[in-house]
What we know:
Number of strands: 9
Number of helices: 0
Shape: elongated
Strand content: over 45%
CATH class: Mainly Beta
Helix content: under 10%
CATH topology: Jelly Rolls
Structural class: mainly beta
Distance between the termini: 26 Å
Amino acid sequence: MLLRIFSLVCAILCLLPSASGSVLKGSLNVDNSFKVYISTDDSMRGVSLGSRSDEKWWITYDFSSSLTAGQDYYLHVEVTDFSGVGGFLGGFTVEGTDHLFSNRSQYQQF
Length: 110
């Protein structure tokens, strides 16, 4: 059995402090399993936003998380391929005006 693991880290930067905050939304298709976390420290996995471990890569997993204004966040996605060719497809958006991804947009795609 071949086992491949890789991690994706996506920085979500805070730009404007405000009382409203933002919402991070994401959609993932992964072959074969994944765990997704959000953290305020890039060296820590953080709080779990969900996981799946099966062979149903064609099923899209959606998640969301509230973001506190004035705080930087890191999205950590840990992916494991059980054998053969693996795959990861993800789209992420930030709704609100006080957070952006490190690419300075409200959308990030992998």
